[in-house]
Amino acid sequence: MKKATTLLLLLALIFMPAKAQQDTKHVKPVKNVILMIPDGTSLSAVSVARWLQWYTNPDKPRLNIDPYLCGTVLTHCSNAPIGDSAPTTSCYMTGFPGLAGWVSTYPLADPENDIYPNDPKRAYQPATTVLEAARMVKNKAVGLVFTCEFPHATPADCSAHSYNRSKYNWIAPQMVHNGLSVVIGGGASLLSEENEAILKANGYGVFKDDLQGMRNYQGDKIWALYDKREMDYDIDRNPDEQPAIEETTRLAIEKLSKDPDGFFLMVEGSKVDWAAHANDPIGIATEFLAFDRACGVALDFARKNGETAVVIVPDHGNSGLSIGRRDCKNYSKLSKDQLFHQFSQYKRTAQGMAELVNSHPASEVQNLFRTYCGFELTPEELNALNNCNDYKNSPIPKEKRSKTNVSASLYSGSLTSFMAQLMTSRTCFGFTTGGHTGEEVFLAAYHPQGTLPLGMWSNIELNQYLCSLFGMTHDTLEELTAKNFVPHTEVFGDYTCEIIPSADEKGSPSLVVKNKKSKNKQLQITPFTNIVKVGKKGQEEIRLNSVVVYVDKNNTFYLPKELADYLKK
Predict the structure, then answer these.
(1) 35-47 residue pLDDT tens
(2) Which of these, 469, 89, 97, 482, lies nearest to 262 by C-alpha position?
(3) Residue 8's pLDDT is what?
(4) What was the pLDDT predicted at 539?
């Protein structure tokens, strides 16, 4: 126990914001910052992608990021070395690692396990992000590009606050009300009619599954969303229906760079992580290559612009991917053809193959595999396919399908996981897990004046570097948090507060605050928006510069201190 406590204290000294080991005081501020996050990308994923590009394009041995690799980042949760996207990207954004699944929200204290000490009094308090600070303090235009659905963890980490990353009904309206100039990605079904109307009323062009509409739009404020939830993998997508992340990054930069005060843009290669969870090597490699092309767009702009810094960093590792697998004989002596030729034949991800097989008659299965994978199924593999529960065109009736009919080495459960296993079996790649991993991730950066983040950084220190690029410090974020995310009981201690339950079971309560001395002076506060109504009938409307966040765990609204002033007038 004593040794564990000593270790925690040592780690606290290393990683506490006040004890930053890296120099951020001498970083030269820039006008624009582009943060690029390939979600769940281990260094081995980068290697596989680089080899695939080099093998299929001999004149391209290097990635766009290669000249800018400058260090590594140690990412973690507040109380655990391995994190998911929510707390790890939250730390890049806020300077505080959170608990698993927490989005830019101060964590609960866990004294026995916290990597550095947390203040238990601040649990559940929203923490201001670099994106929010850039907009509020520096008047920057801000934007998000991604390929997952828009309320997913990483985009949410930049522009929303929640102790539960799955509460899309809390996160989505925050993103709508948080002053984002550009949002391009997935999740068309998750933008409600009410929120779409709010965007349009505030001058946004809103496009759902409308590629040409997005391309032709001349305005600078835009939300463009594709598919019901996440966008397709790059190798699977129909280019006539969904844009590549390279295109959406270019479009976002074009829109945001018109702002005379500059901009902050976060670009996420979301589905590298998803492919890693699926143990799908071709999905990992092609998603990262698509992301790397987007990096090329950002870096090209930055070099020409002369006022833009680019930071490229994953949020965590995933899957334990390796080039080499122990049941692959003599794998360390295999030629590049033996290691990568079969792999280079894959023209669909595992999910893409599952969708193809489910949309064609069983008689065409072998032809599909020849066309899109470069091999045919063995009789044993074909039998395993036919016994997959979610294979729609199997000649075996569903009630007669069983894992007992399949070799244990071939049984995978779902059709997609079977495809991933099948396609991986033709390579010498291996995986240790289908979950996140705790190794350091790569760091690449471009700075027009050369003040780069060299060496090993903690995720806390990287937040400080991002702040310094805009001439801010972590204290700037803390000051904004202290100003804008105060418990309503502290803000309205001298007034009568009533929390009104929602008529909808899934809805959130609202807060009504009254001046005891004047019945006409009251506020009606709707959480997860920036709108506050003043007066008994709500005849006046206030537009806040931040969003109001409600937390049901402590029945608290977090809102700006200044709201109390409206009850004094």
Answers:
(1) 999 999 999 999 9
(2) 469
(3) 45
(4) 74
Secondary structure (DSSP) of 4-63: HHHHHHHHHHHHSGGG--S--TTPPP-SEEEEEEETT--HHHHHHHHHHHHHH-TT--S-
Q: What pTM was computed for the model?
A: 0.94
Kindly state the percentage of the chain with pLDDT values over 90: 86
Which among 317, 319, 266 is positioned nearest to 441, based on CA atoms? 317
Model pLDDT, residue 32: 98
Question: Which regions of the chain carry the CATH code 3.30.457?
Answer: 486-567
Structural contact between residues 97 and 459, judged by C-beta atoms closer than 8 angstroms = yes
Superfamily (CATH H level) for 2-321+433-481: Alkaline Phosphatase, subunit A (3.40.720.10)
CA dihedral sign of residues 556, 560, 562, 563: negative
φ, ψ dihedrals at 216, nearest 5°: -90, -10
Please give the CATH number for the structural domain made up of 486-567. 3.30.457
CATH 3.40.720.10 location in the chain: 2-321+433-481
242-257: b (≥16 Cβ within 10 Å) or e: bbbbbbbbbbbbebbb
